[in-house]
Amino acid sequence: QMCIRDRYYVLMGINDYQDLLDRLEDTEDVRLAEKRIEDNNGRATIPNADLMAELGLTEEDIAGTPTPEMA
Fold first, then answer.
1. What is the 3-state secondary structure (H, E, C) of 12-36?
2. 7: β partners
3. How many Cα neighbours within 13 Å face the side chain of 63?
């Protein structure tokens, strides 16, 4: 940590920085999931495995698809 003109900076390796970003994204994903559960008001949900079976999809079907960027 260093201070330049009343601003603090942290120097870290790129791998540590990427790990930090990954953890931040994971935390945001958990927060969004918890909010969706709360907003569901106790209504029944469909497990992912049941939905995939209903749609006729397997893990292999979706393994090669790109992950969309979340906004």
1. CCHHHHHHHHHHHHHHHHHHHHHHH
2. 4
3. 4
Per-residue pLDDT of the chain in tens (71 residues, 90 and over written 9): 666 778 888 888 999 999 999 999 999 999 999 998 889 888 888 899 999 999 999 998 888 888 877 65
3-state secondary structure of 62: helix
Q: What are the C-alpha distances in Å from 29 to residues 14, 40, 48? A: 22, 16, 17
Q: Tell whether pTM > 0.70.
A: no
Q: How far apart are CA 58 and CA 29, in angstroms?
A: 24
| Residues facing residue 9 across a β-bridge | 2
